[in-house]
Amino acid sequence: MAFIVGYPITSVLFYIHNNPLTQLVLTIQLLASATIAVFLFLNYKNKISSSNLALYTTLTMTAFHAYLLWKVPHQTYERETFNIILVLLFTLLVVRWNFRYALISALVPMLLLPSAIYFHSPGSLTQFIGEGGLFLIGAYLVFPYVCQMRYEKDKKEFYLRYTLQKQNEALEKQKTIAEQATRAKSEFLSMMSHEIRTPLNGIVGVVHLMMQDNKKNNLQSDLIQTLKFSSDHLMAVVNDILDFNKINSNHVQLDPVPFDVRALLTSLEKTFIPKAAEKKLDLIFKVDATMPLQIVGDKVRLNQVLTNLIHNAIKFTEKGSVKVVSKVIGKDEKKVRLHFMVIDTGIGIPYEQQPTIFESFTQATVATHRQYGGTGLGLAITKELLHLFGCEIQLFSEVGKGSSFTFSIDFPFIEEVEEVAKQEPVALPETTDTYSFARVLVVDDNPINLLVATNFLKRRSIQFDTAVNGLEAIEKFKANAYDLVLMDLRMPEMDGYEATRIIRELNRDIPVVALTASAFSVEKERAMSSGFTAYLTKPFLPKDFYDTILPRLSREPLNSANPIEVK
User: Out of 2.60.120.40, 1.10.1760.20, 3.30.565.10, 1.10.443.10, which CATH number does the structure's domain 256-414 have?
Assistant: First the structure.
């Protein structure tokens, strides 16, 4: 386009100087522009490439300009050589030619231009060379090499850009795959959380209901206490077991509280005695007599570590014993170092497998997995939890002779603790503070959850109705007056979100408590933004249950004979 427009403009200089050949010059230049315009049109139609277009344009310009040099006399060639060098520089800046194209575009003008001047007048050639022609020829000689260097540089840059583009595309694909995997993992964990928490809620609820029954002997009380200990522990750690990545990424924070480590070990012993007896193993607990009365640490996490190790020891031991040793190996004014050992006489771990036994989803051999099952997460979780305590776990094992897992942790301790009479804890005593005036609608598709929730309501004399899905809940809500609704989120026919939306259209003020097995913050945020008043996660303790619903029950009894008018 620059040559099509610019080349004919130069005829103005001939016109200003009243050159009689101005019309000839303008005609030749217009013919050159027209020829270049044809090439441009062919390029537009994809008949010739951009590189060929540039080459044909340069050769056309050279040919027509050589004709003018032959036909039009020049008093001086200084301006001519200067203008041609400017054209050469412009071409160098615009085009991206390889050596072959650049050589052709240099050889043609080096031959045509001096030849045209010579045929015009042999003496003019000498004048041309003396007035910049020699420099112009040198520029044409260098031009192909400069183009080649630019071409190679541009090719490398293009390759780098192309490579980066491909890498970016690959990264985008990997990002998409990762996002899809993250969504799939979140959905899976949400589903697993619901599936695990639902039966766990039944266990925890039934245990607390059994604890409130005074008609039990000492053996039954011990068994219920052991069951409560196990259910409480399972309830405390189930979130982190479901989300191993959270533990592995050090997102779990320790919660140090004072506790009696000897009582913890006693509870562990009672928990594993039935399992050891089932396999006819000797379960031996050795506790150092100099153990402080109380230490300050995360009781739940320490319990989880020891539980994993003892469980594995019993699991992989067919005969002999499992020994749990805890002793004091160091002490100063502020801290005590406790050393724990879990020793078994089981199958042992091959030496070559020991470096990888603490990795996720890893077991010693395929045969081990087939015989004993399991996910291989226990030791990996144990290792990461001990990292939170600031210690490492050591393994000593020999195939056929057993294994020993040891670790040492520094704990702050309390020397003097007031003696408290040991008594069996009671979940919630019977109270005269009843709510017989209140009526609650419990909506859940799981009969165990309905059993637990309604029995908790009975303990406070609260009247209730039940529904197994959202549709049934809406029908009962229209027909009766309620002080509060307990609503499960995931149900057949109609889920809790849709049912709550309809209930809110009927009554904007009634408290609706989400009763769900999902503990994920995203689910809670969605529930609270969908009109729920509160969010109660299964499994729930009686105290949490009552603390959530009792403040929201009206003290003035509703007249159930006058249902809500539906417009």
Answer: 3.30.565.10
